[in-house]
């Protein structure tokens, strides 16, 4: 059994006790039991399909219960889903109690706020747009209770500091729950209409489809991130210098792309390009990457093949788009003296010119065995001096503007090579300090 702190157990017990107190007035509410049973069964079914198959939580039925039922009755809607859902982590009983008590308190609060603002009359009379006001307030109350309880469990079970436990919980949940609340309101209105509950159930079909599409998108995105993370980790293990370098080049590439006004999709591609620009080093012999001392001309030629190796490695990864071109050409120079193909000027793809500037900037502002990190201002001055010959002046100017506005706060700062792995000498000997 996994150890759960005593204070976390006490916290869950207190939340459960509050949920029980919310349900106690149920006999006096004269709630329609058939509606309660139908909504509870429907919520349990949706949680099974959406929660287990799609990896999410489905709130429209729960919020429809808040709009249709008295607070004490609405608090019972989540109960069957929590009691019969499969729990894989221990302690099972504690997790079941938490899964039942937390949404019960949230939906009770939503129903109380909705009723206090006259929401049930608006639902019965299909009084739009007035019905949106109490529904919106109920959704806000629902989110506030969920966020408060989640923050409490983070603080008690995972020892997260109190000042951080609630940070961002409400802002992250408000928009998606508001969409679910709108669907729940549509269900409630149709439920109270002459068409009855059957018509209300039709709202769930498009919601389930949209949840499925959303889940598929996030799974695909997670797979993309995992692919990139695996490639970067492999390069980091082989070449100590690139530890952190790849992520910083991706960050600088994003700054340049945003300054140039590129759309979000292309900015993301540039981030991928920056992160993976050195992936071809996986094809370079490790002894050359770890060589302590100057490289021979033959060794230099071998290392200069890494852009082509990288392009071959990612050729079949379709979601990278033009990032593959940046990986191939990020060592080309505007004057045609770069590699691997000696492209010049406009022959060099725009994305490669972005990554080239970001790569050189991080090389100059990072500490290596053969050179100390230069101040940001010095690095920018050097980039500007080499603009027009080695770098695209437009990219250099964009980076300078972005740094002037936002500064340079790299997310990754681990520049040091692992113990026993020396950083490598520069290949080109360029005055800009550009890495291989």
TrEMBL record:
Pfam families cross-referenced by the UniProt entry: HD_5
Keywords of the record: Hydrolase, Membrane, Transmembrane, Transmembrane helix
Parts forming coiled coils: none
SUPFAM superfamilies: HD-domain/PDEase-like (SSF109604)
UniProt-annotated stretches for the region Disordered: 414-436
Gene Ontology MF: a single term: hydrolase activity
InterPro entries assigned: Cyclic_di-GMP/3'3'-cGAMP_PDE, HD/PDEase_dom, HD_domain, HD_GYP_dom, HDIG_dom
PANTHER family (alphabetical): CYCLIC DI-GMP PHOSPHODIESTERASE TM_0186-RELATED, LIPOPROTEIN
Record protein name field: Metal-dependent phosphohydrolase
